[in-house]
């Protein structure tokens, strides 16, 4: 290991990486169960073990230098931060702003009057890792006052990369790539968050924070959510922020997709299938006369974490296909139909109905740019 660690300063000093180290084998990994088009696959790059060790050494040196410039509302690839934190922060911001605007009358009255509403723009970068421009990333790193040898090393890491595709026993001819970062490597996720770190929202009245009282922008990897509180039809700040994001994406050669609706069917169907498969094991444990305490210990980490994740988005008033299928499971025996699972969903619906913003999630309307 000592000989490998000695290679890092030599490689950084030379500002070059051996071509053999950068050579990657691309393995197509399906995004769907039944892929039918090339876009249904994710190209995962397999590199040499020595390159992975080298990337970890560079990352350990690069992370503390870049961290002061990173977006605090980027929830991906951060230690002790994940998608749960992103969902909780998004909902907390939306509900707290609506509560602040609606202190006397009911939530539904404001929805009917259309005086206050939330605008949410959900944006996604297409093939984000594959579109990183090495020269633009070099400029961003230089603005962060990174060491010149380190910047040159990263630029060389992203350019002149030989790669070939392997599918079963077939291997393609190698090609040289100068765009993007190889997916599945150690360093690429951090380089992407660094590439997008310079787009952060600072309002004119809120210089020290990463959001204002009416708008905020948060990220999770290549997904971006812009939330704006529209009061009395005044949505200029929200729309300006969306337009700024589109303009920044164009300048950085990132293709941006805007979703014009909230669609939970794909996610809820997957959660439904996972919950039903895990419910089988719980029933089997009960058939062996396992005590209720042990059943509860099994249920909390294995089932509850899956069923109730982001439940405020689909339970009760939203009436999604997921909640209806859970409330009326396809069971041949009546005792299964009356099991704890439908009862738990109903109890959660009654509890959330007491909190008006959760009971009316449709009030969060999407305003496309």
Automatic annotation (TrEMBL):
Full protein name: Reverse transcriptase domain-containing protein
Residues of the Reverse transcriptase domain: 10-283
PANTHER family: ENDO_EXONUCLEASE_PHOSPHATASE DOMAIN-CONTAINING PROTEIN, REVERSE TRANSCRIPTASE DOMAIN-CONTAINING PROTEIN
Pfam families given in the database record: ALKBH8_N, RVT_1
Superkingdom: Eukaryota
Highest classification ranks of the organism: Eukaryota, Metazoa, Chordata, Craniata, Vertebrata
SUPFAM superfamilies: DNA/RNA polymerases
Signal peptide feature range: none
GO molecular function, a single term: methyltransferase activity
InterPro entries according to UniProt: AlkB_hom8_N (IPR015095), DNA/RNA_pol_sf (IPR043502), RT_dom (IPR000477)
